[in-house]
Write a structure and sequence with these properties.
about 270 residues; Beta Polymerase, domain 2; globular
């Protein structure tokens, strides 16, 4: 299911992301990041696939969902760990890896590749204390674990989000954010990973990531390819099954009158 002929793609583009618009420029900059990550992954034989709204975009629009302002990819934990090692030395100077290892105030347990020729301020303001604040793509690690383990990791890292949400401009409680994140990274998560190795769970999640929708490896591997913005990128073996499991009827357009963007402020330089 690569396209939906009932959708007026041209009208949606004209409304949300016409050529030259700020959103379209952001999407094209995200595409540049994806192309570079794809190049590096192919060079090092690292597998990944388009996911979430990005995968819907490929299946329904052959590119970005017209109003989408983020880009997501997923990979299994061993590939993720390898990629985290090679990205810092392989990315061009115009891009940067952002993770808990590269930014002391970053508290997400997934990583971002950032563009350094732009400035982006998200509406949730979590990024106000981070070193890199350019346009980005998200890279999510996944591995088999039971739902209870993931929910526990969500709850332990949830304290960080509560601190960030109540903290004022002074950022006086950042030490608590760093403390909780390090405790989860070096104590809670290693213990849970040991337990997860004994589990026969089908679902794959990432510890500490605030999303726990199921993904089944037998629907994902071996990977295939799908067109996205005029190029071919890796996607799950059964994209329809993966998206239906998470979203239901993903080919049906949502209420486009209630579309919300992540970005609060955005500047893009050439």
């Amino acid at each position: 299911m690569n396209n939906c002929p009932e959708i007026d793609q041209e009208n949606l583009r004209a409304r949300f992301n016409p050529d030259g618009s700020l959103l379209r420029r952001q999407q094209l900059r995200m595409l540049e990041l994806l192309i570079e990550v794809d190049r590096i992954c192919k060079k090092h034989n690292i597998s990944y696939w388009l996911s979430s709204g990005t995968l819907i975009g490929a299946a329904r629009h052959k590119g970005f969902i017209p109003w989408d302002d983020d880009l997501d990819i997923e990979m299994l934990l061993p590939d993720y760990n390898r990629l985290m090692k090679v990205l810092p030395r392989e990315l061009p100077d115009t891009m940067a890896l952002q993770s808990v290892k590269t930014d002391p105030n970053y508290f997400f347990f997934y990583s971002k590749v950032r563009d350094r020729r732009s400035f982006l301020a998200e509406s949730n303001r979590y990024d106000r204390v981070w070193k890199e604040r350019g346009i980005y793509i998200d890279i999510f690690p996944f591995y088999k674990q039971p739902l209870w383990a993931h929910l526990l990791s969500e709850k332990t890292q949830g304290h960080v989000y509560k601190i960030m949400n109540r903290m004022g401009e002074g950022n006086k409680e950042m030490w608590k954010v760093r403390l909780f994140t390090r405790f989860n990274r070096f104590v809670v998560h290693p213990v849970l990973k040991m337990i997860c190795k004994l589990s026969h769970a089908r679902e794959t999640y990432g510890l500490g990531i605030p999303y726990h929708d199921p993904r089944h490896l037998e629907d994902i591997l071996p990977l295939t390819e799908m067109e996205f913005e005029g190029r071919m990128f890796p996607v799950p073996k059964d994209t329809h099954k993966v998206l239906t499991l998470k979203y239901g009827d993903y080919m049906q357009l949502p209420d486009i009158e209630s579309v919300n963007l992540h970005v609060g402020k955005l500047r893009i330089s050439s």
